[in-house]
Amino acid sequence: MEGPLHQSSSSVISPDKRSVADRDGMRLVILPDSKGGIGDLINDPHSTRLILGVEVEPLVQWPDDRGSFTEIFRFMEPGIARDFLSQGERKIQVSITTSYPNVIKAIHYHFKQTDLWVAVQGMFQVFLCDLREDSPRCGQKNTLFIGSLRPWKLRIPPGVGHGYKVIGQEPAQLIYATNRFYDPSDEGRIPYNDADINYDWISHPR
Known about the structure:
Layout: E1 6-7, E2 12-14, E3 17-23, E4 26-30, E5 40-41, E6 55-58, E7 61-64, E8 67-70, E9 93-99, E10 104-110, E11 115-121, E12 123-130, E13 141-147, E14 152-156, E15 160-167, E16 172-178, E17 187-189
Parallel strand pairs: 5-13
Antiparallel strand pairs: 1-3, 2-3, 3-4, 6-14, 7-8, 9-16, 10-15, 10-17, 11-14, 11-16, 12-13, 12-15
């Protein structure tokens, strides 16, 4: 049985970190960032700046004179869905969400759930933040722009805060698979504009 989820939005465990939640030996924390910004901008699926455990895989499309075919996930085969049914789990949920331009959905995190994302319409500005206190890159942030102009698939492990903003002028659709059914007790949330994470959601002229 999973232990209770202990959440605290303001508990300071040291001068340089803030406790978010803990469960079964995993403690999630926020390292205050006074500089702000978007963290590491990921433009290469094999970037060494990806948060540990986050994986990117190009979405391969097969067009011909009849149209196009795209395979999204192949579970238990080489690739980002290779071990999605590990540890005896046999519960995969696949969902689709539609969001309108400029909508922000963030920041979510999980202790058990792994997410696989693929954007199938529109463009997303994806935010990732390593909340795992025992991670050597705790506090690291990534930004990825994915969707119709960059068809990437993402794997987001437990303990990595995540969210997105829809950019552009059209609604965007995201298909996501999770390695367990939706469980509100496993999901935590942090405000999208958390002052300590200090993520910049605004598009600036440049």
